[in-house]
Amino acid sequence: MGMPRHRLSPTLFAVVHTVLMLLTVPTLEEPPSTLAWITACSATVLTVAALARRDRTPLAALGAILAVSVLGQILTIPDMLGLIPGLAVLMAIFSVTTVSDWTVALGATVTAAVVQPLPMAVRHGFDGVSFSDWLIAVGLYLMVSALGAGRRHRLRERQAVEERLARAAQERAQAADTERERLAQELHDISAHHLTSVVVSVEAARRLGEKRPELGAEALAFASRTARETQSALRRLVEVMHVGGTPAPASMTAPIEALIAGFGKLGRPISVSLPADLAGPTAEAVHGIVREALTNALRYAPGASVGVRAERAGDVLRLTVDNGKPPGGTGGDKLGLGSGRGVAGMRQRAAAVGGQLSAGPRPGGGWRVEALLPDAPPARRPVGGRRRDFTREQRIADGAVFGSAAVLSWSVALMNARNAGHGVQVCLLLALVLTVHALPLLWRRRAPWLVLAAVGATALVWPVLLRGNVLPPSGAAFLVGGGVVELAAVYAVAAYGRALRPATAPAALHAGPPASPVTYPSGSRLSYLSVPAATLAFGISMAATLAADGTLLGEPIVSLPALLLYGFFTLVVLFVFLGLGFTAVWGAGWLMHRRRRRELSSQDAALTALLAQARERIHSERQRVAGGLQETVFQQTTRVISSAEAGSLDDVAAASRAALATMRRLLGSLDAGKAPTVPRGTAAQGAFRT
User: Fold this and answer.
1) SS3 assignment for 543-569
2) Calpha distance 317→278 (Å, rounded)
3) Closest CA to 441 of 495, 494, 402
4) 115 pLDDT exceeds 80?
5) At 675, is the pLDDT very low, low, confident or very high (cuts 50, 70, 90)?
6) 273 in helix, strand or coil?
7) Which of 86, 427, 478, 618 sits at a 20 to 30 Å CA gap from 350?
């Protein structure tokens, strides 16, 4: 077995640090004292112990390493501490920014930056602190913070994918049961709406036949029409089962109003107030709840007035269905048509879209169904879907990369400017020019190619500033640190300049194909061209900057032959050196991109396999239920139609009740977790395929 990851890096650090310390001691002017050896060895042990715990307690590890670094540099020879003040602190900052919130990470980085110059200040006073060295340390801290923020984003993204895969695995395990329950709800809605209406209207016609004989003909026509509508609804449901999807979403206001108007034709007063733009899953839930509530009113309060009202209040849709007392003051399921699924089914519909539903008696009599459903408008995407929202960790990482590149370029410029004897004004001007040069890095993920172009364009301004005496002559050495920005831009093109498709999944297994995944808008397969582009832009800028004062590396340019003879080899070396550096950085970004691409491909493959297995189970369940429908309910509704055409109210009533009873048995088998068997060779099987 290999060494655990949390022990590997501290062990390697201890070995490298010890070797470096032993190699450094012989080069010291004076041999270290016994106290110095004890201090250095103790610092090493404490640092290694803190590094071993940095994943579990990163803040404590960082605090311990900073304390060891400061005290060790004060109590012993700083050169004996080797990697502790540098590499160990960077490793601890990386751990803090990886596992902590951005505010904690920022505080840790600032603390490390403040503590870093303290040993030199204690030894030599603040005049002995090198500002350039401090800027280099701060730049490295910011770079490590950027790496830690990126690592934190990848870990959270990986956790989200694992949770998504776990949900997909759970859906696969429950796919058949979930689909069976959904189909049972659909079948219940169809039977409750259509067949209950037939039974109620036929029974009313039979009861009032002597007083109002015209009701008989109306009831027969209604029964025939409603039975055909039932068969059409069942056909549509079976067709959906066969194709394995659901109908495309559409505006639901008109269908809901038609549904309410159909109940009004049964001789009861109904008032309705609906928004004109109901659509989406919430509107579908409203349709199902209203249908069930009206059916229950038809069963339990025949002849009572009903009010349907839907009102918006912010992001919530309040749906209320009220029915009054039935004529005569008594209600109840006198015809025995209830199945006991009504209220539970309405609650399931409300919960499925994130809402809640209550049902119960009204204070003044009657019954009230009230639902609170989410009604947030869909988020608008820019035209073409070109926008990509980045996480906080990614934005923080981009800001840290910008800060690191700017600070590191400052350090080189200020060190050279100070050595040349320039004042504060020149230093501030150099910092401003280099900050503008690094500023495009804030958009390195959104538009890496544009960032590379902007960085190259700002670098080409440097020789113009030198020739115009805005910057001091011979200022090429001041600006060479700006190459750090070019390196970051080339890395961004290699890492983010090609599209990545994160693993996505549909909201539900029966909700159709998944939405198109979000991609980086600046996708390109030619990211390697960033190397010659950056080499050419920065090389030309540096060559022009070097020659801006009439000299080339201190040698005067007196003639064209001299320039060709001396400058040619200088420029070749410059371009080769830049090309090698940019190629190495591009390779690192490309490898990171390839790794992310492999991870996403693996995640997509796992998710696709789980969804395929779940869809197969759903398809199998749909086929069994479709066969049961073809064999049972369709035959009964055909009997209703033939009885209505024969003009027999008694036969229509018996056939309608039989159809309801058959549907109830079918629903009972679904509730029990069993699907009906499909007899072979039945005439009804072909009826749904015509």
Assistant:
1) HHHHCCCCEECCEECCCHHHHHHHHHH
2) 10
3) 402
4) yes
5) very low
6) strand
7) 618
3-state secondary structure labels for all residues of 144-181: HHHHHHHHHHHHHHHHHHHHHHHHHHHHHHHHHHHHHH
Output the domain CATH number for residue 265.
3.30.565.10
Give the span between the Cα atoms of 322 and 566, in whole angstroms: 95
d(CA 28, CA 21): 11
Report yes or no: 98 and 53 within 8 Å, Cβ to Cβ. no
Q: Going by C-beta distance under 8 Å and a sequence separation of 6 or more, which residues neighbour residue 629?
A: 187, 234, 237, 238, 666, 688
Q: Please say whether the beta carbons of 308 and 274 come within 8 A.
A: yes
The secondary structure of 616-682 as a DSSP string is HHHHHHHHHHHHHHHHTHHHHHHHHHHHHHHT-HHHHHHHHHHHHHHHHHHHHHHHTT-PPP--SS-
Domain interval for residue 356: 250-376
Residue type, 505: A
pLDDT tens digits, 554-588: 555 555 555 555 556 566 777 788 889 889 989 98
Q: Encoding tokens for residue 613?
A: 């297995």
The yes-or-no verdict on residue 423 having pLDDT over 90 is no
d(CA 95, CA 104): 12
Residue 348 counted as domain residue: yes
Beta bridge pairs of residue 367:
323, 361
**Which residues is 319 bridged to in the sheet?**
310, 371
Question: What is the model's pLDDT at position 506?
Answer: 45
Tokens linked to 229: 């509508």
Query: What's the Rg (C-alpha) of the chain?
Result: 38
Q: β-strands 306-313, 270-273: how paired?
A: parallel
Q: Per-residue confidence at 320, pLDDT binned at 50, 70, 90?
A: very high
pLDDT at 421 over 80: no
Give the percent of the chain with pLDDT over 70.
Answer: 75
How does pLDDT run across 376-396, given as a tens digit for each residue?
654 444 444 444 557 777 888
Number of C-beta neighbours around residue 154 at 10 A? 16
Q: Please state, as a whole number, how many other Cβ atoms lie within 10 Å of the Cβ of residue 628.
A: 22
Q: Do the domain assignments include residue 300?
A: yes
For the record, the structure tokens of 596 come out as: 């992310």
Q: Tell me: the pLDDT tens digits for 186-230?
A: 776 666 566 777 777 777 777 766 677 777 777 777 777 777 777
Order of strands, sheet of 316-323, starting from the edge strand that comes earlier in the sequence:
270-273, 306-313, 316-323, 367-374, 356-361
201 token code pair: 């209207």
- At residue 269, the 3 state secondary structure works out as coil
Whats the size of the chain, residue-wise? 690
3-state secondary structure 287-346: HHHHHHHHHHHHHHCCCCCEEEEEEEECCEEEEEEEECCCCCCCCCCCCCCCCCCHHHHH
Q: Please state, in angstroms and rounded to a whole number, the distance separating the CA atoms of residues 130 and 126.
A: 9
Among the listed residues 80, 45, 41, the one whose alpha carbon sits nearest the alpha carbon of residue 65: 45
pTM (whole model) above 0.90: no
Whether 364 is covered by a domain: the verdict is yes
Question: If DSSP codes are grouped into helix, strand and coil, which group holds residue 6?
Answer: helix
For 114-133, the DSSP string reads: HHTTHHHHHHH-GGGS-HHH
The amino acid at residue 320 is T
The answer as to whether 308 is a domain residue is yes
Tally of domains within the chain: 1
